[in-house]
Amino acid sequence: MALGQGARGPDEEGATTVLNPDYEGRTLHPVLDHRVTEEELVAFADAVGETHLACRDADAAHRLGHPAVIAPPTYPASLALRAERPLFDDPGLGADHRSLRHRDTTVTAHRPVRAGDVLRCTVRVVAVEALGRAGILVTEVTVEASGEPVAVVRNTVVTGPG
Description:
Elements: E1 7-10, E2 16-19, E3 32-35, H1 38-48, H2 58-63, H3 75-89, E4 101-109, E5 118-131, E6 134-145, E7 148-159
Antiparallel strand pairs: 1-2, 3-5, 4-7, 5-6, 6-7
């Protein structure tokens, strides 16, 4: 099956369902707006094992020229997952939550996320593909602060028989 022709995944009876190819090119509304706190960034740094002081201490961040504590580089990916949730919950897409698997994530950073940022995440469906009986969904999440690009997160997930 060619790109955009739909992708198959199992339903409860083991039959096949199709990821809706009409979702390709869509931008999700509403977008996710999120205010970043220093406490949240420190907790994220702890969770991912980030030890750089600029991710934990405002004075250290200031000494390196940052206005506030900065996020570890993978932080935008965690926001992207939250922003994508309404897409995966949309029954019109046809994604089977029981069979969703991560395939790839790429974060392109334009600048570090900083404590105090108010981030807007916009989700766009880049591709709906098929790989055998499995469906592949590619999304791109644009993360901005006050209209300024912060990061772009490209996620690929697979749904269907493994």
